[in-house]
Amino acid sequence: MKALARIWNATNPRARAALALFFGALLVAPLFADRYLLSVLILIFYFAFVGQAWNVMMGFAGQLSLGHALYVGVGAYVSAALWVKFGIGPWAGVLAAIAACVALGLVIGALGFRFGIEGVYFAMLTIAIAEFVRIAFDHMEWTGKAGGFFLPVRADAAGEWWNLRGGPLLFYYVGLALMAGAFVLCAMLRRSRIGHQWLAIREDEQAARALGIDVFRAKLIAVAISSAMTGIGGVFYAFYYNNLFPAQVFDISRSIELILGPIVGGLGTLFGPILGAFILTPLGEALIGATERLGVNVPGAKAVFYGVALMAIIYAAPSGVWPWLKKKLGLA
85-94 pLDDT, tens per residue? Predict the structure, then answer.
């Protein structure tokens, strides 16, 4: 708490006021939002949270992963299977999901970093393992194979918040808590010793090594924290949607959706993943709504739209929207 208080006191007063206003508005938003708007906000919170998780690995430590949907899928399936087959609730199941994702992340990280697999080659390794796991889940009997794995939904369980059984309002506040918690955690990490080591590695790995930083250990810590956070996102995903399909959860398009928010918002910044999610998610939902009203079904339209939006934003603000907006608003 002392570290958090120091961060808060060192923050620009105008930025503190803006931050308090932002989260305060989100706390009372359900009083004025209809069911559809709540569902969009829940999606925004989810993408902001998993985007923040990816930001730890890429934005802070400079390690590119393009297969992060792997941790969403593993976290989702582990928690869902524990709930359906053994009656273990999500608040306990999340610990198993974190353990599984961290173990997987450490294996991938150790393989890559120990053998000098870096940059795009490390990114390809993450894609390959995510695809391998997707194929494995496609053939696992206990996960329902490609036919999907379904969580039971009972009308009389709507108030069981301890089992993450409830309506949009429950998931709204859980999602908001996840997004705010990730923001606070990342603020503390970035100002910590390991955070400074990550930034040194990101800027110049050889120089960081020459300064005595244990680069291998620091990278593995980044992978472990990032995979654990993404696994928690997977638990949220499973209990919100109540159905899991390997082709959807592990697909590379999910990984791309996950990383677009931080890139658009501002890679390596604290508020970038949140702002990116607030920009891209409503735009994507608006596109889906518009095509549905027009009666047009164009496969991949959302991906193309995201690509165009990404190019436009990178052209206008190469460092992301948040660094530009922060300067304009005097929040730096």
Answer: 999 989 899 9
